[in-house]
Write a structure and sequence with these properties.
The N terminus is likely disordered. The strands form two sheets. Strands 2-1-3-10-4-11 form a six-stranded mixed beta sheet, sandwiched between helices. Strands 7-6-8-5-9 form a five-stranded mixed beta sheet. The chain has two domains: 190 residues, Bordetella uptake gene, domain 1 (D-Maltodextrin-Binding Protein, domain 2, 3-Layer(aba) Sandwich); 97 residues, D-Maltodextrin-Binding Protein, domain 2, CATH 3.40.190. It contains eleven helices and eleven strands. Helix 1 packs across helix 2 and helix 4 runs parallel beside helix 11. The chain is globular. The N and C termini lie far apart (48 Å). Helix content is 41%, strand content 20%. By secondary structure, the protein is α/β, with parallel strands linked by helices. Belongs to the UPF0065 (bug) family.
Length: 323
């Protein structure tokens, strides 16, 4: 019954069933994915979308277990402690599995506690201003900041968040004066942005899409290396006349506890990689400004290592701390 229900959900969403090239594992036990975000968050919804398709193809249920809080520490610590049998995975991300290592002086986990399985998707960051802002381009925003006596105010989901680090990177590259206003999450910052209480912020498209479409917010540029399919008329930072180094993708993937057998990791990677190649999944993500992307366990491990070092330098440069 549950399998038929999952199939019905996929068909109603316009997602055709896939057939894996390899057989489903004999183990029919559920797969638990621990998500460090609240139910209904964009990342939670994307994880569930991918999980439904995986369930349909393997015959195994996916239990999405939400454990939000403490910048992903609660979820990561929980997965670290489970048996390394491939039955429980973490929705790892650039925050809890890269930035946190520099943001906190003490963590209950380290990169050695996890085995990377695969990337799932990236959430590109957009430079967004209120509709009433006189800045129509990224260069105009920089110029506005430089001629404003007190500079500008920008918001983020908190100290050390991707939006905070990206804004500080833009400040250092352009020498624009701007003051950080940290919020407890993205939504309160977006509310103040619409009201004009802050001047700009970086955000994923999914967090501001309806407000952009309603004309209440304006996107000036994408902090990406190429334009987004959902926003073909929005220039990249380089195209907008700023540095091509002002780029930051918020990546999300699956990691298993350390010492999970290599053949189990390989099988999971292959299954999820095939799901992410499905055109319907890719289209659904593109419509939300999300990039479906897979990577081998080795490639994912290399990305985590590189971003831990790169973002760690940025955290230290701006003096961000969550202690």
């Amino acid at each position: 019954m549950k399998r038929r229900h999952a199939l019905a959900v996929l068909l109603s969403a316009g997602i055709a069933p896939l057939q894996f090239a390899h057989a489903a594992p004999a183990d029919a036990s559920p797969l638990t994915i621990v998500v460090p975000f609240v139910p209904g968050a964009a990342t939670d919804a994307l994880t569930r979308l991918i999980s439904q398709q995986w369930t349909n193809k393997t015959g195994r249920m996916v239990i999405v277990e939400n454990r939000p809080g403490s910048n992903g520490i609660i979820a990561a610590d929980a997965v670290k402690r489970v048996a390394p049998d491939g039955r429980t995975l973490l929705l790892s991300n650039f925050g809890s599995n890269a930035v946190n290592y520099s943001l906190y002086s003490k963590l209950p986990y380290s990169e050695r506690d996890f085995t990377p399985v695969t990337l799932l998707f990236r959430l590109p960051s957009l430079l967004v201003v209120p509709a009433a802002s006189p800045a129509r381009t990224a260069q105009e925003l920089v110029a506005l900041a430089k001629r404003s006596p007190q500079g500008l105010l920008y918001g983020s989901a908190g100290s050390g968040s991707g939006a905070h680090l990206l804004a500080e990177l833009m400040k250092s590259m352009t020498q624009m004066p701007a003051t950080h206003v940290p919020y407890r999450g993205v939504a309160p910052g977006v509310v103040d942005l619409v009201a004009g209480r802050i001047d700009f912020m970086f955000s994923s498209y999914s967090s501001v899409q309806k407000l952009v479409e309603a004309g209440q917010l304006r996107v000036l540029a994408a902090a990406t290396s190429k334009r987004l399919p959902a926003l073909p008329n929005v220039p990249t930072m380089k195209e907008a006349g700023l540095s091509e180094q002002i780029v930051m993708d918020q990546w999300f993937g699956l990691s298993a506890p350390a010492n999970t057998p290599a053949d189990v990791v390989a099988a999971l990677h292959a299954q999820f990689a095939e799901v992410l190649r499905d055109p319907a999944i890719v289209q659904r993500m593109n419509e939300q400004g999300v990039e479906a992307v897979s990577a081998t366990p080795a490639e994912f491990a290399a990305l985590i290592k590189a971003d831990t070092e790169r973002l760690g330098r940025l955290v230290k440069a701006v003096g961000a701390s969550a202690d």
